[in-house]
Each structure stands twice: as C-alpha cells, then as structure tokens.
C-alpha cells in the first residue's frame, strides 16, 4: 500500500534533513506550516502518514492536524514535540487525534520505526474500510436481492442506492458505504409487513397518517433487524431518523442529510414504480416533505432513475441482461409472475428466464434507458 509521507514543520532545514534521510525508504513530501500543508494535500492527494510539529507560528500542530484530518480522514498522524509540549501531546494522543508522538530531538531510526508502525495502522484502517464497503456491503446486497426475488417489494433498494448516490452528488454531499447499506436494508422492514399492512401501505396516499405510521414502523423494523450486526450503529440511528426527516440544511450533520436523502429516494422509487410521472412523483414528495428547498426539488426532477419509463423496447429473452428494467410483469407458464414490472433484472433472474423460456420468439418489454451500458 501507499507510503506517501508528509512532514509539516516551520523549520526548512529540518524538513530538508528529513527528506534527505528518509527519501530512500518513503515518498516524502514537506510543507512549511499548516497553510502549505493544506495546499500540498490539495495538489498531491492524500497521504498515509503525516508528521506534524507541535510548535508552529500562526497555526499550531493540534489545529493543523484537525484541518488536515477533515481532508484526509484515513491518514495516521504523528506529532513532533519538545519537552515542554509533553502534556499537550499526551492529551492529543488520548483524544485520538494522533497515533504516536516523538520527542525532539529524535534519531532517524526512531522516526522510521514510528512511520512503519503508523503505515501499518493506516493499512489496517484501509483494509477495514474495504471489508465494510466491499465484502460486508456485498453480503447485504446479496441478502436483499434474495428477499426481493422471493417476494415483490414496492421499491428496489438497488435503485434506491443508485438514486441516493446521484442526488447526493448533485447536491455536493459526500456519502460512504453506510448510506448505500442503509438504502439496501429498507427491504428488511418492508418484508416484515403482514398482508393487511402491506395492502394499506401500497394503496394509501403517502401523506395519509396510516401510511406515515407504517413507514415509521418499516424504518424501525429495519433498524432493529440490523442492530445486532457490528459497525451498524450509525446506520441504525440514521434509519430511525428517516420518518421525521423533511429538510436538507447546509449546516446539518451527515446523518441528518442521509436521513433526508433516504426518505426522498424511497418515495421517488416507490411512486415511480407505481407508474407516476416525474412531475407527479415530485409533487407527492414536496407535499410529504414541504420544507425541501427549491434547488433540491429541481435536482430531484433531474434524477435519471425511471425518468424515461414510457420509452420501451422489445428484447428477446436470450438478449436480456442484468440491470435492464421490465415495463411489464414477466410470467412463465404454470408458474405465474416471476419478475414484477419496474424491477431491474439480476443475473439470477436472467439465468432463470433463459433456462425456463429461452425461445427466440418471446420478447420482453424493457425500459429503453435501462439498456444503456448493459448491452
């Protein structure tokens, strides 16, 4: 993994020495002070290990680390201190701002040992993130795909996740794997509805009090079902906040923004799956969430998901591909409906259709814009 090291100090001679002594083993960049460090990060990208001097004019080491951490949350920070700074360094260490601290003056071998330990810590952080965003999120996707294949759901959580990512991008909101998983696990709560509850939830207007109550119950059930899984606390709290989320404030925290986006993309998917137009869907959402700003409403209307659902094309069963969205239900003789309209085809669905009815004569009505990039 990367061994990009950044040294931040106000002493240019020290920086030159560090670059000369450590340049053979690491890719070393230097910055004289916090402002130059921020500029270096914006130009060079993220660093795995950052070593910062505590005593610097204008902006000290602790404040510098706070600023850099905003841009590089996965970086591991080491602090250089003098004897008089030990208390400050220990406090920073205890608060989790820094991984280690080095007391000046220190030998090159000491610095190298700390850099190696910090690099190992960085690698662990990245590996954990990849495990959560890749393997774990992939397992959630597989589980929800299976649920959605067994029983048609009023929304497709894969489309929800894609819509959330697109809307967040349009609004310049950063998201992570947590938002994607939160969108996916909505299926779990919906699957817990009994027949009568599901009938009401599907038939009632979203502004109806009973529909709102059921939606809140769905979010709560989804949160409860995943609460026993590790590293799910943030997602659990976000799901619980979704029913009351009705605005997107600039200064809101990430969780509040995620809750609002989740509620929007749920109803975008829910209503377009019913066959409502973009305009009608947006109108329903603004009635349900009247405090959304004008810009957000405009961006909702620009979502690509299901925007061109009225444009369809006939495709032979043998030519179907994962990701295509069916305009009508797909039925098989003696079996009945195997794929509901509005659902993107999965690889398993396509294999099943080809195996059971792969004749060249049969054609399926597919939404044309869902074919882009899958043929």
UniProtKB/TrEMBL annotation:
Residues 4-119 form the Response regulatory domain. Pfam families: Response_reg. Keywords: Phosphoprotein. GO terms for biological process: phosphorelay signal transduction system. Gene3D superfamilies: 3.40.50.2300. The modification 4-aspartylphosphate is found at residue 53. SMART domains: REC. It comes from the Bacteria. This is Hydrogenase transcriptional regulatory protein hupR1. It comes from Rubripirellula tenax.
